[in-house]
């Protein structure tokens, strides 16, 4: 392992010597190439940051929408139960109605699909971060 590291060190020293021995215009060309590469990486990083921020904002927006939808569904289910109790009387207070079950299932479906969307966005966000790290 030490020999391998020594060999790599020698190779790097050789590269450094080549750079030192290059004519000035070659050095300038290499500097320009490295600056261009750095600028491209910075641009990609900025783009990735914007995308990540956008995905984060969209995730928060979807979470708020889910919460408000769940609250509305609960309110509608409660109103429906009260209406049906008034119509049928108090005899079946403890028995959930078919309509309230439908509302509950709709709420559950919306929540599940929204959670899946959030998971997808989080996966995409993670992939973008990995790409940024790779770049």
Quick overview of this protein structure:
The protein is mainly α. It has helices at 2-21, 24-88, 98-134. It comes from Spizaetus tyrannus (black hawk-eagle).
Describe the structure in your own words.
Residues 1-25 are annotated as: Disordered. Keywords: Coiled coil. It comes from Spizaetus tyrannus. This is TNIP2 protein. This protein is mainly α. It folds into two domains: 10-92; 95-134. The chain is built from three helices and no strands. Helix 2 packs antiparallel against helix 3 (98-134). It is rod-shaped and about 95 Å long. The mean pLDDT is 81.
Give the N-to-C terminal Cα separation: 29 Å
Structural domains: how many: 2
The whole-number mean of residue pLDDT values reads 81
Report the uncertain regions: none
List how many beta strands DSSP finds. 0
What general form does the structure show? rod-shaped
Helix/strand structural class: mainly alpha
The major beta sheet can be summarized as:
none
Order of helices and strands: HHH
As a percent range, the share of strand residues is under 5%
Radius of gyration: 31 Å
| H/I helix tally | 3
The helicity comes to over 70%
């Amino acid at each position: 392992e030490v020999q391998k590291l020594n060999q790599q060190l020698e190779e790097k020293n050789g590269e450094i010597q080549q750079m030192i021995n290059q004519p000035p215009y070659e050095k300038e060309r290499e500097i320009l190439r490295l600056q261009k590469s750095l600028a491209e990486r910075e641009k990609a990083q900025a783009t990735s940051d914007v995308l990540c921020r956008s995905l984060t904002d969209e995730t928060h927006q979807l979470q708020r929408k889910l919460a408000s939808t769940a609250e509305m569904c609960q309110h509608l289910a409660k109103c429906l139960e009260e209406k049906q109790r008034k119509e049928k009387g108090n005899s079946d207070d403890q028995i959930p109605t078919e309509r309230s079950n439908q509302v509950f299932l709709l709420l559950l479906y919306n929540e599940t699909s929204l959670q899946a969307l959030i998971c997808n966005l989080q996966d995409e966000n993670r992939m973008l971060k990995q790409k940024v790290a790779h770049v």
